[in-house]
Structure formats: structure tokens, C-alpha cells
């Protein structure tokens, strides 16, 4: 009851009319607003307004969830929404981490809302349940929020995660996502596994990084983050500065596309411009 009251206050503060709406209507409204955010070209000037809209998306999904209980779709979309809010529309690593923790919690709830996942996890463990899971979206947003939460903590966080065995769980999740749909989120599982091999504190593998990101760039060239990852996780670690400059210049000249790639592609261009200055300094 307290949760419902809190969400109601948030909705009123953000100007959302929710009284009398069914869970289906709330979900439809959230879906449409989420699509609007992702289909808006990101620039620093619109970050604030887009953040407010994402808070509205989350409030609507949470109100619907309060009414229907552990719904897999709502839980998964909340995990997705918290990831976007943290990764694109929030400043400061500590605040980002808090949001990714929320996103991970929702994603894991989505996984465990499936009785078969819960039963297998109880009997044989988390990794076994992941390997049998067919919900690529819940798996992907579990990984994405979990991995970003760890990454934002720096090297010490990466090492601690490896000693806890988080790396084995994350690898199992992304391996399963690639089996189910390597093209999810425009090559998201390929990008994620490439980042895994680039950042692992004890077993980096840049040949795998190159292979995974080359495939992502070839299969989904309109999604600019694939090439940005190639620069960040392959060219720069290999000190291939001239190649990095060329790739970043290509990113800045690339078409931003249309539809739900606009938010991320706009962010990539902002990141590429800043990174290009750093790389040019390496060339002298």
C-alpha cells in the first residue's frame, strides 16, 4: 500500500494521470513514452527533459506492477528502463550504480517470475537455470545492469566480482543470449561479451573482442555503439591510435539513423567527440 501511495505521488509530481487507469492502459502509456524517448536524438541539451520522461516511464510501469503482481513483461521493461536512465540520462558514477542495482533487481525478478527458472535454480543453481532460460530480454538486462554496476566500481570492483564468481554467472548469461538471439538490441549480446573479454581482470582475450565486435559492426552498422565499442575495447587497448582516430571520425560523420536507435546514437556521437580529443593527444 505504501508503495502504491509513493508511485501515486511521483506520478502526480510528473503530471501523469493514472487514477482509474487499468494496468493495460498504464503499460501502453509507458510503452509509448519509452519508445518516444528512445526515438529522440540525444544531445546534452535534451538530457534533462528525456530524464523526466524516463522517470514517468518507470512510474507508470511500477504502478501497473503494483496492481498485477510479478508480471514478467513489466519487470523486464523496468530493468530496461532503469538501464537507460542510468547509462544515458544520469550523471555521476554513484548515482548510476544505484540505478543499475535497481535494474538488476527487476531483471532477476523477471527471471524468477518463471516457475521453471526458480525450480531449476533451487535444484541445480543459477547457471543451470540460465542455460535453460528462453527469456532473452530478461537475461540481457540482468547482465547489462549487473555488469555496468560492477564496471562503475573500477578495477577493485572487477577483481572482487571475479573472486565472488560473478564473472562465471555473467558469462553464462551472455553465452545463453547469443544462443537465443545475438541480434537482440542490435547485436547487444555480441557487444556485451566483447566487453567481458576486454575488461576481465584475469583473462582478457582481444582476439575474441575483435571477432565479436567485427560481427556486430557488419550485422548492425546503423547502431553506432558497435563501432564505439570497437574503438574502446580493441583499438585503444592495442594502442592502434591512427585506426582509432579514423574510426571515431567515421562515427562523427555517420548518419544518426531513425527510430529507436536515435537516443543511443546521439549519445555515441557525444562520447566519440570527447574520445577523439583524447586519442589525438596520443598521436601528438
Produce the secondary structure layout.
Elements (H helix, E strand, L loop, with lengths): L1 H12 L9 H16 L8 H22 L3 H18 L3 H20 L2 H10 L1 H7 L3 H16 L3 H10 L1 H15 L7 H12 L6 H14 L5 H11 L5 H13 L8 H22 L1
Helix pairs in contact: 1-3, 2-3, 3-4, 4-5, 4-8, 5-8, 6-7, 7-10, 8-10, 8-11, 10-11, 11-12, 11-13, 12-13, 13-14, 14-15
Brief write-up:
With 284 residues, this protein is mainly alpha-helical. Helices cover 77% and strands 0% of the residues. It starts with a helix and ends with a helix.
Q: Quick one: biggest sheet?
A: none
Provide the low-confidence segments as ranges. 1-7
What count of helical segments does DSSP give?
A: 15
Oligomer: single chain
How would you spell out the order of helices and strands?
HHHHHHHHHHHHHHH
CATH structural architecture of the domain at 182-284: Alpha Horseshoe
Relative strand content: under 5%
- What name is given to the CATH topology of the domain at 182-284? Serine Threonine Protein Phosphatase 5, Tetratricopeptide repeat
Q: Provide the helix percentage.
A: over 70%
What is the strand tally?
Answer: 0
Secondary-structure class: mainly alpha
| Envelope shape | globular
Radius of gyration: 19 Å
Highest-level CATH class of the domain at 182-284: Mainly Alpha
Mean pLDDT over the full residue set: 94
Q: Separation of termini?
A: 61 Å
Amino acid at each position: 500500500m505504501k508503495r502504491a501511495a509513493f508511485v501515486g505521488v511521483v506520478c502526480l509530481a510528473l503530471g501523469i494521470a493514472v487514477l482509474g487507469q487499468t494496468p493495460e492502459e498504464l503499460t501502453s502509456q509507458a510503452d509509448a513514452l519509452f519508445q518516444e524517448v528512445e526515438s529522440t536524438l540525444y544531445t546534452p541539451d535534451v538530457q534533462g527533459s528525456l530524464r523526466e520522461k524516463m522517470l514517468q516511464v518507470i512510474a507508470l510501469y511500477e504502478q501497473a506492477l503494483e496492481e498485477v503482481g510479478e508480471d514478467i513483461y513489466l519487470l523486464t521493461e523496468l530493468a530496461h528502463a532503469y538501464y537507460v536512465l542510468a547509462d544515458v540520462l544520469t550523471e555521476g558514477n554513484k548515482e548510476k550504480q544505484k540505478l543499475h542495482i535497481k535494474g538488476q533487481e527487476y531483471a532477476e525478478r523477471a527471471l524468477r517470475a518463471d516457475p521453471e527458472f526458480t525450480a531449476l535454480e533451487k535444484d541445480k543453481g543459477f547457471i543451470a537455470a540460465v542455460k535453460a532460460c528462453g527469456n532473452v530480454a530478461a537475461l540481457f538486462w540482468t547482465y547489462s545492469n549487473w555488469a555496468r554496476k560492477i564496471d562503475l566500481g573500477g578495477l577493485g570492483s572487477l577483481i572482487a566480482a571475479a573472486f565472488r564468481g560473478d564473472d562465471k554467472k555473467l558469462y553464462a548469461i551472455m553465452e545463453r543470449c547469443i544462443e537465443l538471439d545475438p541480434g537482440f538490441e542490435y547485436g547487444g549480446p555480441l557487444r556485451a561479451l566483447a566487453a567481458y573479454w576486454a575488461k576481465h581482470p584475469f583473462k582478457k582475450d582481444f582476439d575474441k573482442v575483435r571477432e565479436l565486435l567485427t560481427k556486430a559492426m557488419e550485422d548492425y552498422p546503423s547502431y553506432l555503439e558497435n563501432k564505439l565499442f570497437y574503438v574502446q575495447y580493441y583499438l585503444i587497448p592495442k594502442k592502434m591510435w591512427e585506426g582509432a582516430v579514423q574510426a571515431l571520425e567515421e562515427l562523427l560523420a555517420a548518419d544518426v539513423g531513425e527510430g529507436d536507435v536515435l537516443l543511443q546514437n546521439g549519445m555515441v556521437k557525444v562520447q566519440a567527440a570527447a574520445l577523439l580529443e583524447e586519442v589525438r593527444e596520443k598521436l601528438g
